[in-house]
Amino acid sequence: MISELHVVDWRRRVQRLYAHVRDVAVEDPAAAHEYWVASRDDLLAEHPASPVLPEDRPAFTGVPVGPYDASLRFEVPLVPDPARGTPDAARLDVPTGTDGVVPFERVGRLDLPGLGALDVWALRSYGGGLFVPVKDRSPATYGGGRYLLDTIKGADLGSGPSLLPDGDATLVVDLNFAYNPSCAYDPAWACPLAPPGNTLAVELTCGELVRAAA
């Protein structure tokens, strides 16, 4: 049985993992990615709070991951949604089995050159945080979409140096760090899926996959 302390430890480890990734990626994003892949595999294989089902763990040898592609790393401005904070703001209500309905509000978008745009969602309940899922057209990726940023749970690739009170807010968006949601391993999980504004009309064979890309 997964205890509350197991979940706390999982969150703590994920936070440390992403803190190290942010530090290393300043000079060597590919090395940061290599560390992330190995650390994610260790957590999924061995941690009591892993979403990988206990009966699947003996055969678990790691998640298929695409090779690092430096062209898929961006630092882009967060373009504010003009309706944010108003009754007209776009909302995403996600029903879960344990936490009721989890509310998100669209607060902006990230424009990725040559790929399209991704909506940025803010959690409008306890803890707050930003959430950026992504779905693509590759048959090798999880059909419901993957996650790039989920800051309330520690998945945070950082912000650029221009994140200043009088400047444009920027976020680091590296598609190589797209990871599978927990429901990809255990159907008992209820995961937010990528809405239309988080769907790219391209195949992305980077990040965590559900099977090796052809």
UniProtKB/TrEMBL annotation:
It holds the Pfam family DUF1684. This is DUF1684 domain-containing protein.
